[in-house]
């Protein structure tokens, strides 16, 4: 009886996800969809620009106003900045530079051979949790997980005889769904959000709040513990929900470009050995150069290596390029897969030739996100949601859940984690301080909601790139495919992670260093 009920529930879930996938894939091509959304933003900005709103924009202190993007001055400004908007689109340079190094490593066979070696010693049943954990760990390197861990997840799963889209889903869940989890090492997001929380807290009507200081590690214990939660949830969903559903999805990518799981040959083993030495030497030199207090890699202000202003943090993408380029070249020459520098350049060119579709999508995505931000439409949604939550005056547990859900919904409209918190936090933090809730707890609730829905919003700047990775294996992949693939992770994380936070709060487990649950702090 239990088996029948379980089968019926899985059948309902699969039908729902199939409907979402089919409906989503009936949407226009992602590039055209972003162009249509751009036109919609223009139309809404024109229609709403004459309306008066009571909500105050925390960035200006004045009533928020929708900017008419169809006004002559706005249109000419948009066309004048179009090239700049595109070339300064943050993911564009990150992806292309990283792919140059990864392209060489892939072309010479270094990545393929390295993964075959890893698979030979890793139990298959641990591939999923290890991949998700690596995705969470990649936050230390800012956005490196999107261009490194996610495509490698597909390669690892395919080489192990599993569906590559399940590997992409698991990696995406770790990298983006678990964005607010930290694997022992704090990420660059911690000081960034803490700084915004401190600014928001000082807006409180309480005179003593003007000197409040928020520790950058104020959520560290909670986010570290959340890593285990994200890994377990992702592991269960990938193996029990996502992969069984993908069994009927054929892999129709170019066979010549798909990884193979052949035994390592003597030349490959020798190439891996020397490539590993090259990588270790490179890492050792980097570590040695960061050790002195006066190291040029350190932040000029705080002398910390992990501060957002530290050249080390700002050089992550360049370091990824070098740490794959150098061992890739060494492997190629030792294993005999390349003969001269022209082969190295060919590897880079091959990698870039596969990025054409992404560049087209990135162009329209960049224009849409820019216009949406300029219009203030997303800011209006965030402010109205925050004020509604205040007016409802729910019990504390319900209010915390409301912050999580509000953050998750706003995340569908504003992609940047810092931009969302700058808007929501300026309202929510001082508001909840008046109700006795600490800024640390409000920030933790925001991080749960923001992280959980990252994986289902097309406004995520890397969303088009994930579609490109999927199309290498399943050519019919569209927005609907990816959303249907990731929706179980998003909904489950919202419920389980919110419950996890409420458990921390109910049991009075410290959220992080110097954190409190109440304001003013007890004692």
Polypeptide structure, described:
Helices cover 67% and strands 0% of the residues. The longest helix has 29 residues. It contains 22 helices and no strands. It is globular. Helix 11 packs antiparallel against helix 22. It has 523 residues and is mainly alpha-helical.
- Terminal-residue CA separation: 55 Å
Instruction: Evaluate the radius of gyration.
Output: 24 Å
Task: Tell me the major beta sheet.
Answer: none
Approximate shape: globular
Could you report the average pLDDT, rounded to the nearest whole number? 83
Q: Helix/strand/pairing class, anyone?
A: mainly alpha
The total beta strand count reads 0
Task: Give the SSE string.
Answer: HHHHHHHHHHHHHHHHHHHHHH
Summarize the amount of helix as a percent range: 55-70%
Strand content: under 5%
Instruction: Give start-end ranges of low-pLDDT stretches.
Output: 5-9
**Number of contiguous helices:** 22
Search tags:
523 residues, mainly alpha, 0% strand, 67% helix
What does the secondary structure layout of this molecule look like, with pairings?
Layout: H1 2-25, H2 30-48, H3 72-87, H4 90-108, H5 110-121, H6 127-137, H7 144-147, H8 149-159, H9 164-177, H10 189-201, H11 220-246, H12 266-290, H13 311-314, H14 316-335, H15 341-353, H16 356-375, H17 377-392, H18 396-410, H19 417-434, H20 439-452, H21 463-471, H22 479-507
Helix pairs in contact: 1-22, 2-16, 3-16, 4-14, 4-15, 6-8, 6-9, 6-11, 8-9, 9-11, 9-22, 10-19, 11-22, 12-14, 17-18, 17-19, 18-20, 19-20, 20-22
